[in-house]
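Instructor's aside before we start: the two examples that follow are unrelated to each other. I chose them only because their records fit on one page, so don't look for a connection. First example below.
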Amino acid sequence: MSGPSTGPSNLRSFSKSSSRRIQPSELGSRVGEGSMRTLQLIHRQDKGQIQASPFQGDFAENRPRTSETPNLSEFPVPGLSALSRSQVRTPSGSEGFFKDLSAEARRDFAALATHFRCPGSTVLISEAQKPSRILFLLEGGVNISMNSSDGRRLLLGVAGAGDTLGLTSAISGDSSEIRAQAMYPCSIASLRRGDFLGILSRHPSANQNVARELCADLARIRGRLRIFGLASSAMARLAHLLLEWCGAGHPTREGIQIKCALTHREIGECIGASRETVTRALADFKAHGLVRLRGSNLVVTSPDALASYARIDSLPGPHRPAA
């Protein structure tokens, strides 16, 4: 995966406060997030929208985990640093909220946004947080999950460059229903909720982008419900997930190539299965020539054959839109 392309110079402008070190309290400890926009998975590699981590391990291995998972509001000041003008890498005009955003709206955004970098494992949004700010991921990857009180986790997906964290909560004012945690170091732009709503009221193009984002959220929710509602086994759910990723994969002579930075454990958390179950299912798919694993690349040799083997007849093909 490659990093996001450099955006217009206007978007890289800073507010006066961006040249100093940011205090954690300024970032808002209660940044709501109900947006299912974050269901977008790591398979957006075809547009190079997610920054690869230099620490990322092989697809078939577990990425090392730290015992501590610092929250944005409690992480020590040295861990959160403001970015200088030359350090900012912003998404291109074709990504997420910034797609086709007017020049005037970009200038408005640049004047109000605060830019910062956070280390990996930082919790950017916690469940039940109030929406004081909205975050725009400029570089990096963020795991989006729902967690139970007994420690179980459902991984909804991975947000990449250009994605918005906290969209639904920022609009509705409701508390967050998800947890957003950096996979590795991320560059982020932050807006106060009031400033964000002001941009929406002043710029029609920003409103159109938000409406498009929310419609895409709904489509992804339907896809995820299809996986859990219509797949009776973990193998079928995994096949559903791979076929979902194929929709944004890269066609090659060998099949549909998918770039995946998730470990087997994290894939299991996407479909409600254990790491061991995912490993066995992938090995079975590989033995039958349905997939090929090459580091962080996975190739689905024949989506139709994979669907047939997993006895899937309700999921639209990767080249056919859902009804």
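Example two begins here.
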Amino acid sequence: MKTIASVLVLFLVCILPVAAGREKVTAPPPEKIAEAGEIAKRADLMLARKFFEDAVIEYKKALAITPGDHVMQNKMGIAFHQLQYLQLAKKQYERARKINPQYHEAWNNLGTVHYSLRKYKKAVKNYKKALSINVQSATTHHNLGAAYFAMKKYEEGFASYAEAFRLDPTILDRISTRGTIIRTAEVNQGIQNFYLAKLFVTNGQPEKALTYLLKALETGFSDYEKITKDPVFKILAKDERLTRMISQKHEPSR
């Protein structure tokens, strides 16, 4: 089973471009807008197929015609992000945010850049801003949880994951078809898997909870009393698979 808990999700949601701000923008003629749309379709296809450098080239061509398209600015940021050009990605997300300050996907994606740079406080600030615009975003709640876990604020991280799960019960099992996955390795996997087990057991999914508990033990979680004495895990405490693994972990190494 893939653990989606250790990834951050970048939004890639297609909506109509909005030109915002005080600067007056002269709209290109209809035929040029249509041309930019066709170029953008090619760029989207390249992004989906993971031809990120080619996607950047095409987005640049389209944005030369319609620079006020905040969605396209954001998408080019995602292509840069996947190439690990974090500063270039950051500039694109900032452009998208400047064009449309209410575009919560850009705030979310800025958070992922700061997370990748291990600037967790800034990541949290951007995620919270995104949620102030769209509090129903399961993806951003998920990302906020990952940032809290990286900061060792486990209870806050658990609460954010729980809210993401409430909004979208598939959030921890799927890879978003609307976005790009940024993998991370800073989080203590043992502790995170423990809290994910707690999340699943409190939502009536004991088998998934058991899977994550076993993964927690496999990845270094050793606070066995949190498992055996927490009433939440009562339904699993006597499961043979769990007790056997705990017993094995307790055995002194030879």
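The beta strands are 7-11, 179-183.
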